[in-house]
Each structure stands twice: as structure tokens, then as C-alpha cells.
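Hi F.,

I've been meaning to write this up properly since the lab meeting, where we talked about keeping a consistent format for the predictions we share between groups. The idea is simple: the sequence comes first, exactly as it goes in, then the C-alpha cells exactly as they come out, then a line or two of notes. No screenshots and no reformatting. I'm using this chain as the first example so we have something concrete to point to.
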Amino acid sequence: MAFRLLGGECGALVDEETMPSVWISLPYVLTLSVLTEALGLLCFGLARGLGEVAPGWLPFIGGKRIPPYAAIIPATLGGLGATVFWAPTLLSWFGVLGGGEGFANVWWCTLARVCIAPGMLWGPMTLALTYAYYMRRCRPTTRR
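Output, unedited:
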């Protein structure tokens, strides 16, 4: 679905009757942006050190060690969810699920795909990051 934000369709061929108003589109895009940013920042918790001990400023759990599966389970579900969410878009690009939205020309279509493509990597990259976190925190260490 193409959103008309402040009067611009960004090259998408849209039906004026089905387009939501700016008063619907703007809060939707803003909320989606803030939510995406917050979830993306949570992925930093899987990086070395950040997801092992809760920050001291958090009430009740500050400074305590975080159980590994308290991060692994939500991160795995989130990575799988993001992968499933983006799969129809990727499949539509290859014609498996239809052609998707029409654009005024190939340049608008290319711009849309370049802007959307990084989102498709979010799920698989979160799963890879979760696996690295699991290997670091849960794998028994072997010492010689």
C-alpha cells in the first residue's frame, strides 16, 4: 500500500478514493517509525556485554545478571516474526505473489525497492545475532 504523505504519491499509481487522509497516514508512519526504532535498539542488547547485565538505573533488576533465555526467546520470536512479515514483499518482487503496487516508471520502483530492502534483512540478521548470543552465553566452554 502506498501512502500519500503531504500530497506526494512517490511515483506509485494509486486510486485517490482508496488513499487514507494525511491525518491517518502521518500518525501511522510516525508510530511505525518509533516502534521500529525501539525494536531495533533492543537488538543492541544481544551485543557483547550489553545483554548480560541489566543497567544499574533500572529499578529492581539494575546490576543483576540477565538470564540468557530471557533474551534468546523474545529475540528468536522477533527475528522469525520479522522474516515472516517481510516474506510476502520479497515474494511479490519475484512475481510469486503477484506484481505488487504499480509505479509510474522503473526509477520509482527501483527507489522503493532500495528503500525497502534493508527491512527484509532485519529478521535474518536478528536470528544470526541471536545465535551468536546463544553461542556466547549458553555454550559450555572447553578449556585445555
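Notes:
The radius of gyration is 20 Å.
Confidence is low (pLDDT under 50) at residues 1-6.

If this format works for you, I'll send the rest the same way.

G.
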